[in-house]
Amino acid sequence: MQQYLGLLKHILEKGTVKADRTGTGTISCFGYQMRFDLQKGFPLVTTKKVHLKSIIYELLWFLKGDTNIAYLKENGVRIWDEWADENGELGPVYGKQWRSWEGKDGKIVDQVSDLIQQIKKNPDSRRLIINAWNVADLPEMALMPCHTMFQFYVSQGKSFCIDGERVSNIEVEETSNGAYIINGTDNNGKTYSLSVGEKEAEEAIRSTKLRLSCQLYQRSADVFLGVPFNIASYALLTMMIAQVCDLEPGEFIHTFGDVHIYNNHMEQVKLQLSREPFPLPAMKLNPDVKDILNFKFGDFTLENYQSHPAIKAPVAV
Questions:
Q1: So where are the chain's domains?
Q2: Is 29 among the residues known to form the active site?
């Protein structure tokens, strides 16, 4: 997670002192981007322990279209408590906009379902977008969306080489003696074949499969507390949508507007920067889930997560 540590350093070195809505004060930069190759591991920060349970339940809550914190509290997640009213309501925040955007003449749009259908039917579309910034609803929200819009992109996987030639349109056939033959064509339509073992055949299929990438635009980002959650959440969402669309996860690209460190997080940031990151963990999804709305908490398994201890810091409300 050098990308995240690099962002912290960038703000400390280049940031501007700014006032903010909470009255806490920040050091802030405008415009920054990080890229995470999801084939190289799950981007969960290792220089402090991150509470993955909260990330998963919050994402499932968004996908349910829920805007009341009762579901979160039932599952031991308290990250939205400070903004909810006495009945647990938050107004038309993320879940409402993702699943029940109310448009002209009261028309309701399920952006998540529409997105998945579009990825399946028209993967080259440049309109694979979900937007949470519903201007008409902003005044009713307990907290206006920080991660405002995200777009998906389907691309070719890695090319595969047979006899030194790059080939695509990979197909694998099993022979009667248990061997596997990889067939592919070059740019001129010439066919090449290679005999391999089962493991190599599976890797060839996986590596050349179409990939799904996601770019998030986040208008405002609390880098110490919020951004580690945002990275993991959208990386996981990309993996989930890729699975239900029969694609491989590609990249998660995180683009920021006002990206800031709060004044009362400075010591925590310096402590985190003094720590050496560990290798990234792996995230495994239950392969039997084929509908984005059918994922449950138990369908996610984090493997080989090694981290430094958690670092507490106050939330700016």
A1: 2-157+209-303, 158-208
A2: no
